Amino acid sequence: MNSVFVTGVSAGLGRSMATQFLSAGYIVYGVSRRAPDDLIANGLKFAAVDLTDQEATEQTINQLLADLPWLDLCVLNAGILGPIGDIRDHSVDELRHVLEVNLWANKAILDWLLQSGRAVKQVVAISSGAGIDAKSGFSGYAISKAALNMMVQLYAAENPQTHFTAFSPGPVDTAMQDSICSHPESIRYPAIQSLQARRGTHEMPAADAVAERFARIVHLLPDQVASGAYADIRDWPSD
Known about the structure:
Number of helices: 9
Oligomer: single chain
Number of domains: 1
Distance between the termini: 25 Å
CATH superfamily: NAD(P)-binding Rossmann-like Domain
CATH topology: Rossmann fold
Helix content: 40-55%
């Protein structure tokens, strides 16, 4: 039976991914700050942790995966949006916090996994088009995803035994979109206006629909995408 480890399973896309993999019969391990009690009741092997606490994260994962000799799939999904606005208006401390969650927490997890002696077959880090094309308004989020993309390339070059992908799920209708689409100065940011226009349409599907597509695509990545590369769900056929 395949094993998968997902971060950020209490809500949004991570929760939907965990649900999808559980339904498919996977052994699913997950972490987040809040416990998804219904998923735990359905078989999720869960541990609560604040991913910005590196020491606690390493200890928690060590305990959670203690009896697991190998891992088929690691999905680094947990992330935060951070402040919206011009980058000049946000302090280094504000931007640093976004990178702590979206970048350095993932590094801590990868370092532990790859040094634990476990075989890790595949790693997918959830990225974003914001890390590819500069879109005014997303400041720290865009920086964190661009850095994540490069970090994935570096890990791929250094760990040829594992397949790595930085994967964009495209716009997903989650709570993060509540913050984006309700921004009071959206008129200043065309990228936000674009997301507002897509919400409620097929161009911004619900998390469950995206997770279902992801589960179909993820195992094709090692054969169709070079390790370390960036891939976008919108470049794949819908069926």
